[in-house]
Design goal:
257 residues; alpha+beta; Tetrahydropterin Synthase, Chain A; 3 domains; three-stranded antiparallel sheet; 8 strands; 25% strand
Length: 257
């Protein structure tokens, strides 16, 4: 009996030890028994009947993954050739579907993203592609998410990165931007000149009031006396000068007679 239970006990211990598995918190373990799906194990210590390959466990990482979509050559709706690359963020939500329904889900997601990127760019004009990048990326995300939903995959985001334009298009856009800057500068200068002319007009109206020039003259004299100087300033009201002018004209008229 001791001989019988000794080897049997060893076999049982071996079976138990060889079947122990640890599933990490960010993983799920898909169990296949004789090739058939029999359950999904949660995080923690678990056991399978691994002897003779009767059971096996496939661990699936549920963390968010990124797939780089290489530059895709496409033609916009207004016939402009562009090159666009993007990044896809996705996460597995159903581990059993990702294992049983698709062989290489990462490659499949990348292929769907490439096709969706080309198709979406072909349906928009260049101006919309440059100005509404986030909206177009959201459309691509929805397309890829619908296609991969059956695999237990959730596409969380698509980010468009570089948009490569033809060289002549870049030069044309640079000239357009320079022309726009010059236009704005011209408008600013014109507004400044208009403001200056308005100020001059108001100043002329104010000085045309009787006594305004005399007041201005007194202000000028006050400013010249701040620092001592040898200059003597004689201030004559403009009315006096005008009176002298009229007298002079009258005298000259009398001489002519």
């Amino acid at each position: 009996m001791e001989f019988f239970f000794g080897p049997l006990g060893i076999i049982i211990v071996v079976i138990i030890l060889t079947g122990l598995r640890v599933v990490d918190q960010y993983e799920r373990g898909v169990v296949l028994t004789l090739g058939k799906y029999t359950g999904t194990r949660q995080p923690g210590l678990t056991w399978i009947f691994a002897l003779l390959g009767i059971q096996k466990i496939i661990k699936v990482d549920l963390r968010v993954r990124t797939v780089d979509v290489p530059q895709q050559e496409a033609i916009t709706k207004d016939n402009v050739p562009v090159g666009v690359n993007a990044v896809v963020y996705f996460q597995i939500e159903k581990a059993e579907d990702a294992v049983l329904k698709i062989q290489d889900y990462t490659f499949a997601v990348a292929q769907y993203a490439q096709a969706a990127l080309r198709d979406t760019i072909g349906g928009v004009e260049l101006d919309a592609l440059l100005a509404e990048r986030d909206r177009i990326a959201e459309e691509i995300k929805k397309i890829v998410d619908v296609q991969t939903d059956d695999w237990g995959i959730n596409v969380s985001a698509v980010k468009m990165q570089d948009i490569e334009l033809p060289a002549d298009m870049k030069r044309a856009m640079a000239k357009q931007a320079e022309a726009e800057r010059e236009r704005r500068a011209t408008i600013i200068r014109a507004q400044g000149e208009l403001k200056a002319s308005e100020n001059l007009r108001l100043a002329a109206e104010n000085l045309s009031v009787p006594g305004a020039i005399s007041l201005r003259t007194l202000q000028t004299i006050e400013s010249t006396t701040v620092n001592p100087a040898n200059t003597i300033v004689f201030a004559l009201p403009i009315e006096v000068l005008e009176g002298i002018k009229r007298v002079t004209q009258a005298v000259q008229g009398g001489k002519k007679e």
